[in-house]
Amino acid sequence: MAVLLLFFMLPLSISASGESSLISPEKASGTVGGGVILTFEDKYKNLSLFGFLGIINNKFIEPGCQLSESLFILLFLNHMSLKKYIHFFGCHVSYLICGTHDAFIGVNIGSDISDMPGPTEIVALLKAQSIQHVRLYDADQALLLALANTGIRVTVSVPNDQLLGIGQSNATAANWVTRNVIAHVPATNITAICVGSEVLTTLPNAAPILVSAINFIHSALVAANLDRQIKVSSPHSSSIILDSFPPSQAFFNRTWNPVMVPMFKFLQSTGSCLMLNVYPYYDYQQSNGVIPLDYALFRPLPPNKEAVDSNTLLHYTNVFDAVVDAAYFAMSDLNFTNIPIMVTESGWPSKGDSSEPDATVDNANTYNSNLIRHVLNNTGTPKHPGIAVSTFIYELYNEDLRSGPVSEKNWGLFYANGEPVYTLHLTGST
Ligand SMILES: *[C@@H]1O[C@H](CO)[C@@H](O)[C@H](O)[C@H]1NC(C)=O
Ligand SMILES: *[C@@H]1O[C@H](CO)[C@@H](O)[C@H](O)[C@H]1NC(C)=O
Ligand SMILES: *[C@@H]1O[C@H](CO)[C@@H](O)[C@H](O)[C@H]1NC(C)=O
Ligand SMILES: *[C@@H]1O[C@H](CO)[C@@H](O)[C@H](O)[C@H]1NC(C)=O
Ligand SMILES: *[C@@H]1O[C@H](CO)[C@@H](O)[C@H](O)[C@H]1NC(C)=O
Ligand SMILES: *[C@@H]1O[C@H](CO)[C@@H](O)[C@H](O)[C@H]1NC(C)=O
């Protein structure tokens, strides 16, 4: 039995029409009020009541409010007759949990660039391209100031080199939040904080303090009454997921369970997302020909080439969905079933060296265009159709100072001078 607690303001009036008995979100309107406690003894019944609550939630309940376990299970029922309800619920669930109604596309702004454009130029480019969501790898003061009053949603990051200090000291964490967040909101719309970047795989020494760092940053937001509007999480490399195909057999590298389990408890209790970096380019490159290029690029496949998960019979038409579903299954393996996923990095390089023949402008354009279409369509994944998977493209600019193969320097949509590397249509992103 689960209890859903709703507070709202009188008077209540909801009008609805439509061919089904379920109130459709477009057709409903009204003002609501009062306070009510509803007890659900059977999660499979009273669907129309759930629909009704969904509308109220959609419009009136603050982002960050917790959903009951059984309501969430209901959302994920994979039953044909429930598909359309699931889609509707999916939207409002991700609205509640990740602070957005529909999936969005954002862009990462890396700064390993010899001729780094100034904050005003960067913001001018974002505006010209209608880019509404960005992620920074730090909390650059000048850029945060330039982003003020633009409407652009900003995710800031605690860089890995500041993580140890923050994870060991509540006061250091509170100072970080004061300087880099409190000083800028609400003029700059900071919506999330990434604590570190791929810490388990790039800075394993800091793994033991990662969850403390996350908790300390969160405490500072709570103290400033900003925890509802600013979510805290930590982006992980998808390489911590083992046996990722078929997705239903995936699990997280168990070495990291002592970090992952408390982290998932935190994400669950704060209504935050698992942040995941998803690179079909590397999966394709490392598969020695097992993964077809078309499957990595979201190109249509003949039915006999589609990957089928023999345990779930789900069909996979692209690597991106298979990796995201592997992460959902790996979370279920640890008994976490209600944490949404946000993809903090995904992209394709437009140029490579002789050992990287598939890093081409055509492939980069195909991957990123198809990715944008896929995400903005709210398609979700085969395991969770209609559940938003918001994604940040890696990345805005080519970063010429990055070391490694030629491809490392060529993930950008733009050159540092603002000229496009290729022409993508980001308009329509929200
Ligand atoms: C909800 O389901 C219960 C049990 O099936 C039923 O008795 C009750 O009338 C239903 N309530 C509504 C509002 O449909
Ligand atoms: C900030 O972003 C959130 C999440 O997208 C949005 O709900 C809110 O309206 C934005 N605030 C401003 C002042 O633009
Ligand atoms: C950390 O600091 C916050 C205020 O910034 C406080 O609310 C919280 O209790 C502190 N936590 C610990 C473990 O000291
Ligand atoms: C799991 O993670 C540990 C620690 O990083 C690593 O040594 C090990 O190789 C990983 N296991 C697999 C199968 O990748
Ligand atoms: C998950 O739950 C099942 C059933 O309650 C239990 O047997 C299993 O040990 C749990 N797994 C973990 C990792 O907690
Ligand atoms: C968009 O979503 C619908 C289902 O909601 C699906 O049938 C269609 O294939 C999707 N289109 C793309 C381009 O993903």
TrEMBL record:
GO biological process terms held by the UniProt record: carbohydrate metabolic process; defense response
Pfam families hit by this protein: Glyco_hydro_17
Reaction catalyzed: Hydrolysis of (1->3)-beta-D-glucosidic linkages in (1->3)-beta-D-glucans
InterPro entries: GH (IPR017853), Glyco_hydro_17 (IPR000490), Glyco_hydro_17_plant (IPR044965)
EC number: 3.2.1.39
Cellular component, GO annotation: plasma membrane; side of membrane
Main localisation: membrane
Membrane topology: Lipid-anchor; GPI-anchor
Cellular localization per UniProt: Cell membrane
Superkingdom field: Eukaryota
Signal sequence interval, chain numbering: 1-16
Single GO MF descriptor: glucan endo-1,3-beta-D-glucosidase activity
Protein family membership: Belongs to the glycosyl hydrolase 17 family.
Record protein name field: glucan endo-1,3-beta-D-glucosidase
Naturally occurring in which organism (per UniProt): Glycine max (Soybean)
Name of the coding gene: LOC100820015
